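Late entry, written up from scratch paper. The run itself happened at the end of the previous shift, but nothing got recorded in the book at the time, so transcribing now.
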Amino acid sequence: MNLKGRNFLKLLDFTPEEITLLNTYLPNDLLGNSILSLIGSGIRLQELLALTKSDIAPDGSMITVNKAVKMAYRQPKLGTTKSVKGNRKIPVSKDFRPFVKYLHDHGGDRYIWTSNRESGLFTPEEFRRQYNRIMKKIPGVTYRSPHCCRHTYITMLQAKQVPMDFISALAGHEEASTTLGYTHLTIETLTKVIEALDDTTPHEGGAA
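Output as recorded:
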């Protein structure tokens, strides 16, 4: 990926400062906690809308993903995840557990996001409308789509130098090469890589 492509990917991430602002200004309701849960778990929007209370640990420490909402003839249907590896258990970090716990404690009886239609399922478009409305009101935060929450999660893991195969497993990607399309190397990460050479670099001026 060229430098221009990496800069474009950078624009897809919420910065740490923006995540702090989201934590401050998002309402403490199902929508606000769902947005922060998307950032803290990396699940797809379609997977969020298929979650039930039984899929979430009572303390918010784990999310089980084994289904997703699909659209068929403009109606939401319960279907499989995007890939076989999409069926996964996602441990949630302590910082994000309160948001996930809120979903368990305050979500709907059939699904966390329960609609009035017969299936009880929300559509991704219905969620996006609510997401767009609230996100455009948050001061100091650049508007980004719901999928950028997932992108941010993957980038946060990369910044902590989590191995790519681990990130791929958490994200539910079939191939690690797919995960690479979500990530970019930050200057901090590159600096740490170069610093690793310090102990092996000749200090006497000899040819390497």
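The longest helix spans residues 147-159.
(Scratch paper discarded after transcription.)
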